[in-house]
Model the fold of this input.
Amino acid sequence: MVKKQPTYELKTDQDLSKFLLGAIRDVRKSELEIDKAEVISKLADKYTKNQMMILVKEKMANRLDQLDVQKEMNKQLMSKG
Done:
């Protein structure tokens, strides 16, 4: 039986999910070393954090576009602080 080698061409989130599930399977079968699995896990974490930051930045940019700076400054000047 020919063993299919994992591909590292991960273009979508779905590709990443399939790859990680395969890595988990290989760790369970003792076909993947724990050190390599740990590196894969860390890379997946970094990717996820990067995607989250992209979304947070987009959301912040949208909020800033909707923010009326002059109105907010007036509120701060009028408040008893």
Summary: The first helix runs from residue 13 to 28. The chain has a mean pLDDT of 82. Residues 34-69 form one domain.
